[in-house]
Amino acid sequence: MDPRLLRAFVAVAGELHFTRAAARLYVAQQALSRDIRRLERELGAELFVRTTRQVTLTADGERLLPYARRVLEAQDDLRAAAAGASRPLLVDLNSEGMASGRVLARARELAPECELMARFESGLTGAAAEIVAGRLDVSFGRFAGLDPAVRALLSHQPVRYEPMAVLLPRDHPLAGLARIPLDALAGESVYAGAGNPRTLEWTDLARRLFAGRGIRIAPPAPVAIGVEEFRRVMAKTRNPVLAVVDFPAMPDSVLRPVVDPVPLSPLSLVWRKGLCHPGVDALRAAAARLAAEEGWLERDPAHWLPEDDITLMSDAPRLTDATEAG
Question: Which residues span the membrane (predicted)?
Fold first, then answer.
């Protein structure tokens, strides 16, 4: 049986919506429907009841689902074991100069025999879809902001509660302050990735932070690649940009931490469930050591963070000793 058909089935069963399942798998909806029909023919059973209003699992579909998930997990384990340590591990860091880059640098020290390849693309929502599809191995970001069906396919380890900041044009009225009280942003339109499908988890966090405070989410803007494009777009829109305190310096801009309260961005190391690779072990050990050395998982007493983020970060398996990852 083609594992692709089982992945199609599990995706639709998780979403109970063909359009969303197709987007999750990065395939056309028509192709997904064909795969489901082919699987139903091979099994001689109808798996879904489809109406114009909803999609539900049949009794046969309910029975098949746990077996399909186990088969796919076994396939992932087999692929990981076959790949072994010889293949490079592709790690998405989001941006240069941030906590994720420090984790990678420490992991390279811990496992010099591993080839840990970095790339820089924004957004855990987009990266998670690529991890599930096998096109990426590891990323960093806000795990609670992912769809629960996607989270079920991934593992994560808390890395840091990152204090948030705003990037302001150098001549902005608030730029002269050393710290920006959150309420001082009332009336502002703050850019937080709106319209970018790869950064839904970040936009959601901003929306929760701004709710009831008179702060608007800035409308979609072109995704700027590179420092010069970032400078040009920011000069054109002049909107403050929601960031974290380690965000790299940008020309004609100043970065200021946000206070009263101190909003936190929960950063996790994220990888595909069942992935076995010494590079993942090294990254986990590096994250645990840096967190212990620098207090990355301590929360400011005056912090702000949604309860579901706190729960997921607190409940995640952790390395009690940084040497355990191997």
Answer: none
DSSP 218: P
**Domain presence at residue 131:** yes
Cis peptide before 222 (omega within 30 of 0): no
Q: pLDDT per residue over 31-45, tens digit each?
A: 999 999 999 999 999
* Residue 124: HSE in the Cβ half-sphere, 13 Å Cα cutoff: 28
Same structural domain, 13 and 156: no
- What is the rounded distance in angstroms from the CA atom of residue 273 to the CA atom of residue 12? 19
| pTM (predicted TM-score) | 0.72
| Cβ(16)–Cβ(6) below 8 Å | no
277 phi, psi to nearest 5 deg: -160, 135
Task: Please name the residue that has the structure tokens 């705003």.
Answer: 166
| Domain extent at residue 115 | 85-161+265-315
